[in-house]
Amino acid sequence: MSAARRPPYYLGIDLGGTNIKSGVVDDAGQSCSSVSMKTEAARGADVGLETLAEAARRAVKASGLDWKDIEAVGLGSPGTMDIEAGLLLDPPNLPGWDNLPIRQRLADLLHKPTFLQNDANAAAYGEYWAGAGRDAKSLGLFTLGTGIGCGIIDHGRIIVGRHSNGAECGHLIIQMENARQCSCGAYGHLEAYASATALVKRANEALEEGISSRLHEARAKGVLTSRAIAEAAEAGDVLARRLMRETARYLAVGAVNLMNTIDPDMILFGGGMIAAGTTLLNDIRGDIQSLAFPIPAASIVIEYAALGGDAGYIGAAGCARLMHQGASAS
How far is CA 134 from CA 4, 124, 265, 290, 302, in A? Predict the structure, then answer.
């Protein structure tokens, strides 16, 4: 049974290249509603903004609240941006949305104070505020999907950097020579080795070499996904287990780089490919123990993220709460 709602209320929107997820969140981080809509990004920014606004309206209606109950709106978005100016600069999965004053445009549609944040930062704040990191003072979150997103929270502060490009730890360089190419075009990045996309690519390469595995069947059926590989590994498939073991090693290298940079209480991992069991997380923990300095290795907490696909909109609402309360106080 959910706890009693605690006003005031905030609206969070998680903008993705494929879907928009929106929800109302109370002052304690409890979700009061959530809705999902197709982004239809290729139809352009004007249509996209109307869809964002419609997703917001539906979320408020689903919550049973009125618009007057919503204090502020938070929008988590992918792509390079100028957070302070509220601009999307060059979002690769939102074609034609370049140099878009998205914060002000959405505020004009919704008539509410609106705040923009990077989507991975928003998800990290969601976990810090209302998820697996609620008892931590600082954390890093790696989101493992098509790419690798990352967000860093330190004593309640979202690390965005001087030019809104902080915490891009999916692009930590973990290999210098004979390195794999990242989706960004550069070489040797963590994303090129340990994202869900990279895991499937590495599996296909191994299968093409003729290695025996139950993954051949999944490939033939067109369902060779990161989740399928993780599940096969948990079931004892030798190739899948090797692939997941290598993935854990790569992620541990990324985590240790983050530990050496910000010394957090906790590092979280989220994404579909980690939902099949605990083996991956235990492997990451073991590799961190062998790679990191002993003292931080002894204190770091390594866990799965808790909010799943809701982290983005919950965190975006939390960012709106944080910024709105800060603005009110000043």
Answer: 19, 11, 11, 27, 14
